[in-house]
Structures are given as C-alpha cells and as structure tokens.
Amino acid sequence: MSISPDSHAPESSLARLAPVEAVLFDVDGTLCDSDPLHYYAFREMLLEIGYNNGVPVDEEFFIKNIAGRHNDDIASILFPDWDHGKAIKFVDDKEAMFRRLVSKELKAIEGLHKLCKWVEDRGLKRAAVTNAPRPNAELMISMLGLTDFFQVVVVGSECERAKPFPDPYLKALKELKASAEHSFVFEDSASGIKAGVAAGMPVFGLTTRNPEKSLIEAGASFLIKDYEDPKLWMALEELDRVQQS
C-alpha cells in the first residue's frame, strides 16, 4: 500500500481494511502532547550534571536523539561512555520527574475523545502500544480518562524488541485477537510509524512535534494535525460507507 500522505483519496488506504477489527494507539505525543514535558525533564536534569558542557540541549537535539525512542536506546545515545546501569538510573530518575510534571499538567490531543467515541460506538478492539515505561503509560492513560477505554496496554520493554521493531504491535494484535489486515494505527514518531508499518498496518502520523518529512519517510499513510483533521474524518466516513454497503 502506498498513498501520498496528503492524498484526498483516503478510501484507497482504509477501505481495504473492512471489516475493521482494531485501532491501536501510541501514547506519548499521540494521545497527549507530552513531549514538551519530556523535553523539559531531560533538559533540566542534563543541565544539572553539566551535560553538553553546561549548554542546555535544544528541541532539535531532543527530536533527533530522544523522542519516540526506548529508554535503553536513549541511555546508550546520551551516555555511551557511562556504565549502563548508571545511565539507566539517570533515565529512570528523569521518568520520575516526568510523572510529577504529568500529574499537574497533561493535555489531550485535540479531538481525542471524539475519536475514542467513534471507536467505541463501532465496538472496535483497542490497544495502547508504547515505548514508555508502564508507570508512565498507565498514569497518562488514567489522567486522560481512558483506563476503561483500552483493553490492552503493551509496553516496549516487556517485548523482545521495542519500537521501531514491530514486536509491540504484533503483541497487541495477538492479545486483542485481531489481524493486521483489519487494523490501523495512530502514531507521532518515526520510530513508532516504522513499527506499525513493519507489523503490516497503515499508520496515521500525527504532526504533533516531529518533522513531517521524517513521518513520511517512516511510511505514514496519512499525516494529520490532530483528531479534528478533516483528512481523518474523510477516511473514517469512507470506511463507514464501505462497511455498511
């Protein structure tokens, strides 16, 4: 399947999925705009240890080296010369700081609850699939009021391989008893999009924070600004028509 991400013929991408069985969502940057909180936590903690000669890391550094990656990979990228245990401890401490920030401030992506209602109204299966640590994922899902919405929460560190490998999405499909041929994905990072595509599903790429070019190159079928984007609803309405015919 290849379709231009800004195509006005979304039915060529989603209609083939009918009857749809499942919708799978990433968490960070896909359910909520959490990257600014991650960026703040990393920037402040790296500054505390004098990283980068005491110069605060910028958003470009964050997007290139951190956003969407699994913590093991982040630890290796940030601290290649450190003992791995020490590097992981730093990242774990950062996650604790992130959870403190999340508990005070977390914003759902525009239109998220409207889309969740669309999914629920059609009785579709749904999973959250994330590279975030489980405590982070469960906290964000809870704060968004979606604990009962998701039937399955799959965490990259609990799989043999995390995103960008397909393992987390394949595990979610298995747990939902759904097939890739009748499911689709929402993601916001190149790493996550690659994972969804490798698992055999079309992926909506959200242009929350990451460069559109990287999302297209990763294989996104559509780029959408948020869950109010007309391109999304054109695709879903076409899917409804196909399923009702």
Automatic annotation (TrEMBL):
The keyword ATP-binding does not apply. The keyword Iron does not apply. It holds the Pfam family HAD_2. Its cofactor is Mg(2+). One of its GO terms (molecular function) is metal ion binding. InterPro entries: Beta-PGM-like, HAD-like_sf, HAD-SF_hydro_IA, HAD_2, HAD_sf, PGP-like_dom2. Keywords: Hydrolase, Magnesium, Metal-binding. NCBIfam families: HAD-SF-IA-v3. This is Haloacid dehalogenase-like hydrolase. It comes from Musa troglodytarum (fe'i banana).
